[in-house]
Amino acid sequence: MLFPVTYRVNAAGHMEVGGCDLVEVARRHGTPLYVYDEATVRRRASEYVAAMGSSGQVLYSAKAFASPKFLRVVAEEGLGLDVVSAGELHLALKSGFPRDRIHFLGNNKSLDDLRSAYAAGATIVIDGDHEFDLLREVVPDGKRAPVVLRLSPGVKPDTHDHISTGQLDSKFGFSIESGAARKAVETALAHPRLELAGLHSHIGSQIFALRAYEEAMDIMLGLLAELRRELGYEPRMLGAGGGLGIAYTHDDDPPTPRDFVETVRQAMVAGCTRRELKVPELVVEPGRSIAGPAGMALYTVGSIKDIPGVRRYVAVDGGMGDNIRPKLYGARYEAFLASDPDHAPDGKVTIAGKYCESTDILITDIEMPALRTGDVIAVPAAGAYCLAMASNYNGMPRPEVLMLRDGEVEVMRRRETLDDLVAAEVF
Question: Which are the catalytic amino acids?
Answer without folding.
Answer: 356
